[in-house]
Recover the amino acids of this structure.
């Protein structure tokens, strides 16, 4: 059964039970109230005749009294009994002549004493009518109707409960009819109310079906206030859908990067291998007759081998960085380090690689350089600086000025490599740290250009040391790569707490 049907049936069942219990309680209370009223009329009448001399009062002469009193609540019957429970005199009955009265139980002196003057109920011989009865001992002068002495007389007053039963029966019937009608009406109303209340779940079901069909952009509409269950469910589902869509997008992007990585890695590895194979084929075919030809060929084979070795080392380094990043971090030999030393070495590297380039050593934003003490692995940082310097030399025209900046900015030790080259677009700067990415978008490149792994290595190595790399660039305005590490006093103690954490990389424009 559907949730809607179960809710309606459960509600209808609870309502039916509630109406039935309410009817039973109300009917029982009314019956008890009416019986109390009957008892309130029986008891005074019985006490009246129990204190009247039997020799002075007969049942038939008392008829006018009963017609004025007991007729108000039923059909009265008065019977006098002796100590053994035998009828004394003629009973007074309000029924047609020949009716012997209600079937009374055996009422001798002991039974009367056991009743303790409390009313009780009996049924007639056919079981169709109930009678309320009270029995009291008569207090008199020892004389009965015919003047014979007796030791004990009991007066029994009984009245029919027809009116009480008719009233309670009418109430019970009315309660059942009204209850059934109310149950039917409320069940129909409840069906539409539950249907309307569960309509948001239907909308959610439709949205889930659309998402299962592949439309990950669908969202659950706002179906209720944020403090309601449906509102909270909608917010939770939309949050989950955002995460699912993001995860699918990231997976698709990861798969695309992996395909590009495999293609680029295959190309980068194949290029030097093809060159080496070609030169060796030339040698085997005797196409290198002279010693000079052989030396030039061996020199080119050596260059391609070095290029292949660097590429393999870079790929292995990135693989190790990825592995250690997922395992908690790359093992580092941390020691107090001043970035000024690395900046001075970078200055000499630029002059050695391209003596024609103007190169200056400044502070992070110009001005004089200053100390930049940090806690880092110096060997890894030298690899970072080398890659940044090589990137500036490779991707800018000859003679382009280069600036090396070093110092502190706030709580960070900063080393930056800036050039005045062509710069990068926003799209290029957003992807510059991707592996095998090159700004020209092709696999052909000028001599000296790398495989597109240098900046990825820079980002991973700096992130492993709780730092970040920021890129500031505009087309035609050059590019500035800034390495920011937690500042550490040059002669202070090595801190015991974890260094400040930075994002894995960033870009400023």
């Amino acid at each position: 059964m559907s949730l809607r049907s179960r809710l309606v049936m459960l509600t209808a069942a609870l309502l039916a039970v509630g109406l039935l219990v309410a009817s039973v309680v109300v009917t029982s209370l009314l019956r008890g109230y009416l019986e109390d009223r009957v008892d309130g009329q029986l008891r005074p009448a019985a006490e009246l005749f129990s204190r009247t001399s039997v020799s002075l009062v007969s049942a038939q002469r008392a008829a006018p009294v009963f017609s004025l009193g007991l007729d108000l609540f039923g059909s009265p019957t008065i019977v006098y009994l002796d100590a053994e429970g035998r009828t004394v005199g003629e009973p007074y009955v309000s029924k047609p002549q020949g009716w012997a009265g209600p079937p009374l139980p055996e009422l001798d002196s002991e039974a009367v004493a056991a009743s303790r003057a409390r009313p009780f109920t009996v049924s007639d011989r056919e079981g169709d009518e109930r009678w309320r009865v009270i029995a009291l001992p008569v207090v008199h002068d020892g004389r009965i109707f015919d003047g014979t002495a007796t030791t004990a007389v009991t007066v029994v007053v009984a009245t029919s409960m027809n009116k009480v039963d008719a009233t309670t029966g009418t109430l019970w019937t009315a309660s059942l009819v009204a209850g059934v009608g109310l149950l039917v009406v409320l069940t129909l109303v409840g069906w539409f109310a539950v249907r309307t209340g569960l309509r948001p779940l239907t909308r959610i079901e439709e949205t889930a079906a659309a998402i299962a069909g592949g439309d990950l952009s669908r969202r659950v509409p706002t179906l209720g206030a944020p403090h309601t269950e449906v509102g909270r469910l909608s917010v939770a589902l939309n949050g989950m859908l955002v995460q699912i869509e993001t995860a699918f997008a990231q997976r698709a992007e990861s798969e695309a990067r992996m395909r590009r990585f495999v293609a680029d890695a295959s190309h980068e590895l194949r290029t030097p291998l093809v060159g080496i194979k070609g030169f060796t084929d030339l040698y085997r075919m005797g196409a290198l007759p002279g010693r000079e030809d052989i030396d030039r060929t061996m020199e080119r084979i050596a260059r391609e081998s070095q290029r292949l070795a660097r590429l393999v080392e870079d790929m292995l380094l990135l693989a190790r960085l990825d592995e250690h990043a997922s395992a908690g971090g790359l093992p580092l030999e941390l020691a107090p380090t001043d970035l000024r030393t690395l900046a001075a070495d970078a200055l000499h590297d630029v002059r050695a690689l391209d003596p024609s380039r103007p190169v200056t050593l400044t502070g992070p934003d110009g001005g004089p350089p200053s100390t930049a003490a940090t806690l880092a692995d110096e060997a890894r940082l030298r690899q970072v600086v080398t890659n940044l310097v090589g990137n500036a030399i490779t991707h800018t025209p000859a003679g382009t000025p280069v600036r090396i900046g070093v110092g502190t900015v706030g709580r960070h030790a900063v080393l930056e490599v800036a050039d005045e080259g062509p710069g990068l677009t926003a799209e290029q700067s957003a992807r510059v740290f991707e592996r095998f990415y090159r700004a020209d978008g092709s696999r052909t490149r000028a001599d000296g250009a790398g495989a597109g792994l240098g900046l990825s290595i820079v980002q991973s190595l700096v992130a492993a040391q709780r730092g970040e790399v920021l890129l500031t660039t505009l087309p035609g305005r050059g590019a500035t790569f800034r390495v920011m590490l937690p500042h550490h006093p040059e002669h202070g103690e090595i801190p015991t707490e974890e260094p400040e954490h930075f994002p894995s990389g960033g870009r400023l424009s």
In short: Confidence is low (pLDDT under 50) at residues 141-147, 441-448, 491-509.
